[in-house]
Amino acid sequence: MKSRIFDIRIPIVLVLNVIFVYMIAALNTFLARYSVYISVPALFLAAPCVFLSFPAAMGIIVFTAFLAEANTDVRDGLTAALWLIAGGTIYFERFRLRSLEGVSLIAVFQVANIIILGAGAALFPIEGGFTEAFFVRWGADALFSAAALFLFVPFAIELQKGVFTLLNIDLNAYGRLE
Amino acid sequence: MEQKRQKALRNVAIFAALLLLCLAGPAAVRHFTGDLFDEFKAPIGAIPSHLYDLEKYWSIHANSKRMLIEAGRDLARLNAAYELKLQENAGLKSQINRYERMMGFPSYEKYMTLVARVTERDLSAWWQRITVRRGSLDGVKEGCAVVFSGGVVGRVREVNLYTSVIELASSRNFRLAAHFENDESPVIYQGAGAITFHDPCGQVSDVASTLYPTASAPLKLVTSSLAGTFPDGIYIGEVRELKPDASAIFKEGRVFLNGALSTLREVAILIPIEPGAPIPEGAQ
User: Fold this and answer.
1) Could you tell me if B20 and B67 lie in one domain?
2) In terms of domains, do B70 and B23 share one?
């Protein structure tokens, strides 16, 4: 008989995700002087999709999306819906990530990131509409974001693994302590 | 097998419910959630700015007594010079007030300034905005003008309890009436974003065809009182070249904004003075 107890991984993944939101905001504050903007929504999908059960992963993704979009002009909930679709898709493909091997993680999350950024450009309001300047800037930012994701995704997964190992938590990828 | 099927169904139901809530939830609920996250994010987001203040404090604290005495002496000289300017300023103000009373003009003094520290810069392809550590509790209102020592910063776009979001002058949504220094004809200024590794810029249109700026003799673009939110004569940027627009009657050109716009640490919010309204703490 299964005895379900509270999964300690949920608050850990949530807290680390929230920390990542603030870290990326601080990084963008610094990079503003070079007119560079890092947008890595896939980073916030990585740990929930890899380590948690479906409801917990989706809950954390929605929470992180609302936090990340807090002071933007995007209609409330739209970012969350977009990330939710991306997160759901990755979750159903997560069997490919079970080895937690760096290359497959980066490949999946790079694709997810560029799709989210593309969908954002198509769906979110853009100051002044679609102009050549917007596309040039969007392309440059997407390039820098892809480079940042190369570093951040393995780091984020390793960090979560490290925290779980330190706390002696089972790394069962199905996200339930049974 | 049945258990797996049930689990898959549950997952799909959760996914659909969450998606529906995010997309089609009642507007009031979505706004409430959005505001809740805004307020939740603000205090932690301000931590780097507070840490910078602390770093500055300790760097000053580490100065030797001799250096502090020298800085104090220099400041005393500056204060003496400012004291004279203040007296001159007070005299001029009372003179203006007298003239206003005599001629029945509305008051010239329309704004008080509120200094605010920048906590976050969000300069992306989508928007150009910064967040400051002053909110509705400090008397900030939507639409207030924001300036710094180098000229126009932008306009207050969103006000939370403790923080405000400012739309920068480089934002494509930022548009205002302006004029060139020593030329009173009104022109239209609009932000034009920032290209990677370049300073933010803007666009000026409806310029009279008699103006010929060059790279060596650029024209200074300043705010016009026609804009309403900004006092007259605040520096926006400089124009080095003007080209005829599509109508060939007027000219248009690129405005080079102050490069410091993307590295600002402190700004001044201009709050309109309302007769009888209390002056917020820290406002001058």
Assistant:
1) no
2) no
Listed residue (B262, B269, B263, B265) closest to B283, CA to CA: B269
User: What is the DSSP pairing of strand B243-244 with strand B219-223?
Assistant: unpaired
- Let me know if residue A176 belongs to a domain: no
| Cβ neighbours for A65, distance < 8 A, ≥ 6 positions apart | A41, A44, A79, A80, A82, A83, A84
| B107 and B100 Cβ atoms separated by less than 8 Å | yes
Give the nearest partner residue to B125 out of A67, A84, A138, using CB atoms: A138
Per the structure, the complete domain to which residue B136 belongs is given by 112-275
**Domains: count for chain B:** 3
Q: How many CB pairs under 8 A join A and B?
A: 147
B245 in the same domain as B120: yes
Asked whether residue B282 is assigned to any structural domain, the reply reads: no
Q: Across-strand partners of B202?
A: B191, B255
B179 lies in the same domain as B269: yes
Residue A119 lies inside a defined structural domain of this protein: yes
Same domain for B170 and B35, yes or no, is: no
Please enumerate in sequence order all residues whose Cβ is within 8 A of that of A155, keeping only pairs 6 or more positions apart, or say none.
none
Is residue B26 assigned to a domain? yes
Determine, yes or no, domain membership for B194. yes
> Which residues of A, range 121-150, sit inside 8 Å of B by Cβ?
121, 124-129, 131, 133-134, 136-138, 140-141, 144
Q: Give the list of residues 6+ apart from residue B175 with CB closer than 8 angstroms, or none.
A: B188, B189, B190, B191
Do residue B122 and residue A133 have CB atoms under 8 angstroms apart? no
Contact A35 B44 (CB under 8 A): no
In a domain, A1, yes or no: no
- Taking the CA of residue A61 and the nearest CA in chain B, the distance in Å comes to 11
What residues make up the domain containing A82?
Answer: 9-166
Q: How many CB atoms lie within 10 A of CB A14?
A: 18
Residues of B with Cβ-Cβ distance to A70 under 8 angstroms: 34, 37-38, 40-41
Closest residue in A to B45 (Cα) is A22
* Cβ contact B195–A133 (<8 Å): yes
Per-residue pLDDT of chain B (284 residues; tens, 9 = 90+): 788 888 888 888 988 998 898 888 888 888 888 888 888 888 888 888 888 889 988 988 888 888 889 989 999 999 999 999 999 999 998 898 888 788 877 665 678 889 999 999 988 888 899 999 999 999 899 999 999 989 999 999 999 888 999 999 999 889 999 999 988 899 999 998 888 888 889 999 999 888 889 889 999 999 988 877 888 889 999 999 999 988 888 999 999 999 899 899 999 999 988 766 666 666 66
Note the ipTM here. 0.83
Q: Which of residues 25-64 of A touch B (CB under 8 A)?
A: 25-26, 28-29, 32-37, 39, 54-55, 58-59, 62
| Co-location of B76 and B122 in the same domain | no
Rounded CA separation B164/B126 (Å): 19
Q: A34 and B196: CB-CB below 8 Å? A: yes
